[in-house]
Amino acid sequence: MPISFLDYEIQEDVYSTPEMKKLFDEKARFQRWLNIEAALAVTQSEFGIIPVEAAEEIHKKCKLQFIDMESLKDEYKVNRNSIVPLLKELKKVCDNKYGQYVHYGATTQDIVDTGQILEVKEILEVVSRDLNEIERILVDLAKKHSNTPMIGRSHGQYGIPITFGLKVSIWISEIRRHIKRFDSLKERVLVGQLSGAVGTRAALGDKANNISQETLKKLGLDFDMVPWHTSRDNMAELGSCIAILAGSIAKIANEIFFLGRSDVMEVREGKKAKISMGSSTMPHKQNPVLCERIVVLFKHIKALSSITVESTIHENERDPRSLWAEWLAFPQMFVYVGTMLSYILDVLNNLEVNEEKMKENLYKIKELVTSEYILFKLGKHIGKMNAQEKLHEIVEKAEKTKKSFRETLLADDVSKYLTEEDRYIMSHPENYIGETEEIVQAVINY
Asked: Which residue range or ranges hold the Adenylosuccinate lyase C-terminal domain (predicted)?
């Protein structure tokens, strides 16, 4: 019985994707736990801790196809441990009483923590794949619009000219930092856990460290001599990085949302995007639904990330109050960030860029967008502060007399300091873009 947007079957994949749901499916999680138990048993047999025959049987039966799911479901109704019901069912299906060697020397948190890290390994691959694709699309966009002029805005007001390529280049630099950030996470986060009840590995015997290391190696994870049952800074860092990434994706979506407003119309979600965005009562509208959903998902990720940080506070050697809060938060965060990445890829692949509207908006307040240029030109002759006061006077006078900034400026005595080139720039503000081209080219050539 679906009860949330994550598992709706009719109105499905609004805040999720098929890939994310498959990755975090309950049965997929059970299989990860079984994979860990299989790797542990095989390793223990290699070190002579359990019989080889027992390890072979456990390894063979550590597949969901051998587990009675109805019986497992009933067992979870009466046993509130995260993994014991699954272990009981696994023990049942192992022949020759070899099930007694299941989960030998491990503890519940070892399996669930390591299972979570296996999930993290998969989600990091998805994040890396999608970020690299986002980077590629944005680089192509920056190349295409490296010289496309538009108005730069500051405090919500018209500022001075920029290019759309510059705006995109800033997005690219942010995405590239995330690529590096998530890559650097791997050495600290992709570390499994096999430390026993309170971190001593006592039940694993005198070969405990070797067994733990080799088991995790089989799973493609690193080993740390020091247990991290209650040391969750690695998980908090991961949660924080996910939230920061979500913020960057939401920032891009939010900017596209703004630039697509009816009174701006410079950039917007394309009509070819996967999801129809029409209004139920206003046929002329094309709502930026994907960008809106991205921002919504960011808000939830931000809230959930605070739980992962708060969960760094543990008491003693095990503390489920913090641990379970973290375990509950991460799957939602992973699904949401995977969905955000999928949506922004859809948006960017179908983005509509209206160059004519950009130029029209650039010229909307005419020569005023060159006020900074004029300020520094006059400043060379009368001083920057004096020039600023003078231009304030000219702007106010132009507003009161209903004349243009250009006309009012040229009627003032300070206009004698302006060259023909200066007057040309006033009429062609798209030429006042500083080192924009060099910046964009540097980003493209990175």
From this structure: 366-444
